Amino acid sequence: MNKKVLLIEDDKIVRENTTEILELASYTVKTAINGKEGVSLAKSFMPDIIICDILMPELDGYGVLQIISKSPKLEHIPFIFLTAKTHHEDLRKGMELGADDYIRKPFEEMEDIKKQVKVGEQV
Question: Beta 28-32 vs 49-52: how paired, if at all?
């Protein structure tokens, strides 16, 4: 059975490209275009890992992580931020909220994202 990934990303091109990379690596991927939709989808899809942008409309990635981490049904799921926000303060904030890792946008190679997802699965 393929591992299930929930990708929460508002940028259509990034969402589609990342989905394609993950599907080529044999992951089953569901996508959400904002944090609110992502939280709802997480509850029904029950992914093995969540990859989430930080800056999004309706509910940002920090809000998604806070909701996920307070849900007994979802709190065990590894959570990786996919973000262009790479200042030390931004990384620290996400890690303090419970993020397992970060993938920096833009990622250079297909291998970058596959490697980070595998690391997230081991958490």
Answer: unpaired
Query: Rounded CA gap, 29 and 7, in Å?
Result: 7
Q: How far is CA 97 from CA 8, 78, 82, in A?
A: 17, 13, 15
pTM exceeding 0.90: no
Determine the residue type at 86: T
Of 37, 111, 107, give the one whose Cα is nearest residue 50: 37
Task: Tell me the three state secondary structure of residue 32.
Answer: strand
107: its two tokens: 């990622």
**In angstroms, what CA-CA distances link 37 with 43, 59, 86, 119?**
10, 9, 25, 25
Distance CA 118, CA 97 (A): 21
pLDDT at 80 over 80: yes
The pLDDT value given to residue 90: 65
104 to each of 43, 77, 111, 120, how far by Cα in Å?
26, 20, 13, 14
